[in-house]
Amino acid sequence: MTDFQVSSQQTCSLMAQTPAQKRALSYALTIHRLFTQIMDSKQPADRVLAHYFRENKKHGSKDRRVIRETLFAMFRWWGWLGKTLPIQSRADVDSHWLSVMLSSALLEKQSWPIVIKAWGELANVEHELITHSNDIDTPLAVIKNLYPEIEFKLTELLPESFWKHHALDKQNSLSLVESMSSRPPIWARSQYAETSYIIESLNKQDFDANKSTHFPDAINLGHKSLNLNQLKLYQQGKIEIQDLASQTIGHVCDPKPNELWWDACSGAGGKALQLTAMMYSQDTDRKGEVVASDIRKQALDELYKRMQRAQVNHIQIKHWASEHIPVPIEHFDGVLVDAPCSCTGTWRRNPDMRWTDDLSTLDDVSALQLDILTKSSAAVKQGGRLIYATCSIIKAENEDVVSTFLANNPEFNLEPIINPFTNKEASTLTIWPYEANSDGMFVARMIKA
């Protein structure tokens, strides 16, 4: 059940008696309003939530945590929770809605017992049922314990539209669902500083920072929320927040000293900064250069700010403002095309997107991806590398686009890639969340003969 349209004004049929119940009901009203706004407007949940907190300064850190984590938990488990909610209850904060919020808290073993107890009281859920759920290990067993009359399947935690496009066997499908139902860690990358120094400094500031076993500059920051504006290492440009799957793309590019690279769809420039840092770590003369382009001027403005913070001046910014590529043809040692896509690989970090995204336009998306890849390939010089990447885990946007491109451009050939998380060689690489504890991404590396 993924449709969620609420046209009537928010109402509440519950009466809180105790201070704990009043506080819990206030949370419920806020979460319901935010959830409804996100589902109806299809705006990103993190953006809606950030705007709400900016406009409502009354919430302390504990309030923000309850609201944020419950909201995202509801999206994470909505494939099950939506089945328990009668359609007539969707515009009303009633006992059914309180049961949904209570269930999301129990599924994630959330640690605010007073609020959970009050939600149970308002929803008329037996306290023994709540206590028993806390003793159950698996989420599927928890939801079956709460709603024994309803049948639940793990695959329901991702929308039916996704399963129409997937090519995984049963075991890997279940592994994908299980990973998508857990919170990913925050991944960072050290730049222009020793990783050991960064980790030591973060640990002194009470961050649970650990070095990755896969890449020398990757850092796992755990699940603690970060205020980057208060993190001195970030303000000094010594650390960038970048998911491990995204970092993998830079290592597949493997830029060499003195090379010229074009990041054709750079966005805010995380990979352009990474490519530059990788080249500079091998070349103290800093003769290599990266050109970053995007059709979105605002994203390039953000890249400029990040360059200033990191004191990087070897990235040229060129706005891609027409049908023609903004760089010379046959000029670059490497071209990275991180193409716009469905973003299904980010559903673990952004669980709301699995219920608000529209996968019915994949044919149009894949046609756009092929067009961008084809145009960008003209900038690769002979012997140069062409990297195609997406944050999608759908074959139509990945292997199918690459296959069509290669059929139309025989001067390019796939170069095998070693999967850093499995050590297996493959013609293309899909980074699965359950293998890397990260987002999902796809990457192919091609050489121009």
TrEMBL record:
PROSITE patterns: SAM_MT_RSMB_NOP. InterPro entries: MeTrfase_RsmB-F_NOP2_cat, MeTrfase_RsmB-F_NOP2_dom, RCMT, SAM-dependent_MTases_sf. CDD domains: AdoMet_MTases (cd02440). Residues 174-449 form the SAM-dependent MTase RsmB/NOP-type domain. S-adenosyl-L-methionine binds at residues 294, 338. GO terms for molecular function: RNA binding; rRNA (cytosine-C5-)-methyltransferase activity. It holds the Pfam family Methyltr_RsmB-F. It comes from the Bacteria. GO terms for cellular component: cytosol. Belongs to the class I-like SAM-binding methyltransferase superfamily. RsmB/NOP family. This is RsmB/NOP family class I SAM-dependent RNA methyltransferase. It comes from Parashewanella spongiae. The lineage of its organism: Bacteria, Pseudomonadati, Pseudomonadota, Gammaproteobacteria, Alteromonadales.
